[in-house]
Amino acid sequence: MDLRDLDSSTCSVARSLEIVGRPWVLLVLREAFYGLRRFSDIQEHLGVSRSVLAARLDEMVEEGLLERRPYREPGRRERTEYVLADKGRDLYPVIVALRQWGDRHLAGDDGVPVHAEHAGCGASVRAELVCEAGHVVDSGDVERRPGPGMRRRDAVAG
Amino acid sequence: MDLRDLDSSTCSVARSLEIVGRPWVLLVLREAFYGLRRFSDIQEHLGVSRSVLAARLDEMVEEGLLERRPYREPGRRERTEYVLADKGRDLYPVIVALRQWGDRHLAGDDGVPVHAEHAGCGASVRAELVCEAGHVVDSGDVERRPGPGMRRRDAVAG
DNA sequence: CGGCTGGGTTCGACGTGCGAACTCAGCTAG
DNA sequence: CTAGCTGAGTTCGCACGTCGAACCCAGCCG
């Protein structure tokens, strides 16, 4: 059986992209990692239109990436803020991997705008491919093989 | 200086997404990692329209993600195939991170369709956050700080 | 009570992705 | 030499999604 026969839509990459690949989703998450939580802060910071942001936030709450949480400053009306849920926080490696790729290949300016470090030891954090034997793996040194959940394009079962 | 003041567009994540966030780009790369190279194979496998695929491949070659390479089967006309360039191959961690997230949060079926393993030792490969001290880092244990290339939204030089 | 502000929703215009149909070059069969 | 096939696009009209701007609404404040 050949990897080329894999039904494209059963792939986790494709399923992930249906959610994460929508415009603004990863950027909203990035804002959330930066600590922005309020609608107008996110809207202003990203420069996204309000209508699209409202729709995207709804979807992201629906998907479980963010949680809506009522919030109240003294003397102010109650507001909603959007905080990272676990499912959203687990996308952090994707964001780090994207940032690294951009830092490496789209550079041309004065350096890395944001630096991530390990809360435990203070050392900077990178996304790496690692194998279970503990080696750091280069992208060229990966072999892909069919796994248990593989499905042929042209066969319903088997 | 607060991370919230970062100009959104200087972020490598945003710059990466301008390229990688376009529809089909990551899926075309996934196909490339699987070994698909020919236009019609990719088109048929992904189910993308020819017009969009042609445009996307042009852009990806333009961006340096893929390389066009003439190819000829005996008794056949010369064709073009699209092979991964280094810049495209370096996106593999992004794809692995997306796949892992999908495997974890969008599961609900019979397992992982594709298994990646280290060509050196045969152990399976994952994308992990690691710090320079060599620790594997949890997404919750990351602190973000301004780096050297940071730019305020409201100040040209600062 | 009347205005202000945060947090949306609604609306029309534009842009872009989409599938289907068309084009075109080179190979092959007759 | 011609007719037909195939792979690889290109063109076309439609539909959906994003956009900015305008509108709305609830609560607080003077």
UniProtKB/TrEMBL annotation, chains A, B:
InterPro entries documented for this protein: HTH_HxlR, WH-like_DNA-bd_sf, WH_DNA-bd_sf
A molecular function GO annotation: DNA binding
UniProt xrefs under Pfam families: HxlR
Positions of the HTH hxlR-type domain: 11-110
PROSITE patterns, per the entry: HTH_HXLR
Keyword Transcription: yes
The entry's keywords: DNA-binding, Transcription, Transcription regulation
Matching PANTHER family: TRANSCRIPTIONAL REGULATOR, MARR FAMILY, TRANSCRIPTIONAL REGULATORY PROTEIN
Name under which the protein is recorded: Unannotated protein
Species of origin: freshwater metagenome
